[in-house]
Write a structure and sequence with these properties.
Radius of gyration: 12 Å
Structural class: mainly alpha
Helix content: 40-55%
Distance between the termini: 18 Å
Number of domains: 1
Shape: flat
Largest sheet: 2 strands, parallel
Number of helices: 2
Strand order of the largest sheet: 1-2
Number of strands: 2
Order of helices and strands: HHEE
């Protein structure tokens, strides 16, 4: 797992992007958390996919759902 992982520093730009995403996502998912927004913002910055079972990401094109 760690060989396929990357640690990303949180900077102002990522935080602002996560804030905007959190605000946008909460229009439809009232319990979409800020941590989820950081994950999504980071994935988009890296042009990466989110591999998850978290239903908050169910209809997000950047996510691959696992069961």
């Amino acid at each position: 797992m760690s060989s396929n992982s990357q640690i990303v520093n949180v900077d102002k730009e990522l935080s602002v992007q996560a804030g905007f995403l959190n605000c946008e996502m909460r229009k439809n998912l009232k319990d979409f958390g800020l941590a989820d927004a950081y994950v999504l913002a980071t994935a988009r910055r890296l042009n990466a996919k989110i591999l998850t079972g978290d239903l908050h990401f169910k209809n997000i094109k950047d996510a691959v759902m696992i069961e």
